[in-house]
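User: Before I run my own analysis I want an independent prediction to cross-check against. Here's the chain; please return only the structure tokens and, at the end, one sentence I can use as a sanity check.
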Amino acid sequence: MKSLFTLTLLSLLFAGCSTTPFCNVVNGSNGIIIGDVFIMCFKGDAKNGLIIRTEAELKKVVDTTCNLPSIDFANESVLALYADGGCEVGFERTVTSNTSVKNYHYKVKVTQCGRCKSLALSYNLVRVPALPSDWTATFEVED
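Assistant: Structure tokens:
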């Protein structure tokens, strides 16, 4: 009876979707990221990454009834990169600048654990120093 209880407890611990002591998801922002952008009505396609340099570009990727966040586009740009994971998931965002090739590189590292079938997703919208018009951005999701 004692071994049956132990087996049941271990099964729930490793197969469940709730937080386990062994689950170590990471959230955060690194590099030249100024801050996160919270938009509940985002409708843009950010699976391959997206650069938003103006308010007009921002208005194209949100619902028309959306309250827009205050962004100083004279000094900032917004980068977006879709990523997802299951159960308990974390998104660690890093943007680096490479002046020699005129490029920002946006990387989202996804950490996840649990075995449930729920999907957690994020468009990972972040504010960065204004991306000059002659610069590019590359995007990467690491699972």
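Sanity check: Residues 20-142 form one domain.
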